C-alpha cells in the first residue's frame, strides 16, 4: 500500500535525524554544511565542497558514506590521474580469450573525489556521464552505477598552487556547492578534545542502509510544488541571466536541480510541499558555482554569492495564501 505524504515525510525526517547525529560526532560545529549534504543525498544530487585544506571537507564526505552503510570509494585526483582510473577499463583475459571490464573508482554508492581540481580537465570530464546519467560507457558498452549514487567532491580554491578551474559543464553537474569554513573556537576546542586521541571515523557506525536512502529519495521526487513556486524559481534563474554582473547565468539544468533540492529541503523541514523560503535558502548553494561573472564585476571584486543574492532580492515573492 502506498504511504501517505505525511508518512513519507516522517520516515525521511527520522532517517535524516539519525544520519545528522552520526555525522555530527565527526564534524564539529558545522550544522549547515551537514544539512546541505543531506539535501544533496536525498535529492539524488551531487555535492561540491570548496575550501582551504584542513577544514574537514574529506571527513564530511567519509562520515556521510559510512553513516548510510553504502559502498564508498575515494579517488585522489592528481595531475597524472587517467580517465580510465575513474570509469574503469576493459582488459583482455588470456584464459577466457575475451575482454573483461574492470570497474573504476566511480562504482560505489558514495564516491569521494578528493581535490578534484588537481586533475586535468580531461580527467575531470570522465565524471560527466556518471554524474548526469548514472552510468559509464566503456568500449561502447554501458555499465549502470549503484543506486543511490552520490559524488562528494572536494576542491581547493583555484588560487592555490597546482589547481585547475573546473570546466563549466563539470560545475553544472553538482547540485550544491558549500564551503566548510573554519570552526568557531568552542567547536575547535571540542574537536581537539574528541579527536586528538584517535580517528573519529573508526567509531562511527551506520545508522541506515543504501536501500532505505534510495527508497526515501524516490519519495522526495513526489513532493508537491505549486505552479507559483515554479514560476518564482524560473524568475530567479532569469534574473541571474539578465544581471549586468553575469556573463553566464543559471542554466535549465540548474533550475531542475534547484527544484529537486527544494523538495528535499522541504521534507527535512517537516513539510510535504515547497515554499518560497526554500528557493531563497538554496538559491546561493545551487546557483553560485554555475554562474560566471562579467569582467566588470570581477574588476569590481563582486562576489558571486552577492550577485546571486541580489538576483533573488530583485524577484517579487509569490503570495503565500
Helices and strands in order:
Layout: H1 5-24, H2 31-42, E1 47-50, H3 57-67, E2 72-76, H4 83-87, E3 88-93, E4 98-103, E5 110-114, H5 121-124, H6 128-133, E6 135-138, E7 141-144, E8 150-155, H7 168-171, E9 176-178, H8 185-195, H9 210-220, H10 227-242, E10 246-248, H11 252-268, H12 276-287, E11 292-293, H13 295-299, H14 304-313
Parallel strand pairs: 1-8, 1-9, 2-5, 5-8
Antiparallel strand pairs: 3-4, 6-7, 10-11
Description:
By secondary structure, the protein is an alpha/beta fold. The protein has 14 helices and eleven strands. The protein has helices at residues 5-24, 31-42, 57-67, 83-87, 121-124, 128-133, 168-171, 185-195, 210-220, 227-242, 252-268, 276-287, 295-299, 304-313, and strands at residues 47-50, 72-76, 88-93, 98-103, 110-114, 135-138, 141-144, 150-155, 176-178, 246-248, 292-293. The chain has a five-stranded parallel β-sheet. The chain has a two-stranded antiparallel ribbon with strand order 3-4. Helix 2 crosses helix 11 (252-268) and helix 10 crosses helix 14 (304-313). The longest helix is centred in the N-terminal third of the chain and has 20 residues, at 5-24. It is globular. The two termini are 33 Å apart. The relative contact order is 0.16. The model has no long low-confidence stretch (mean pLDDT 86).
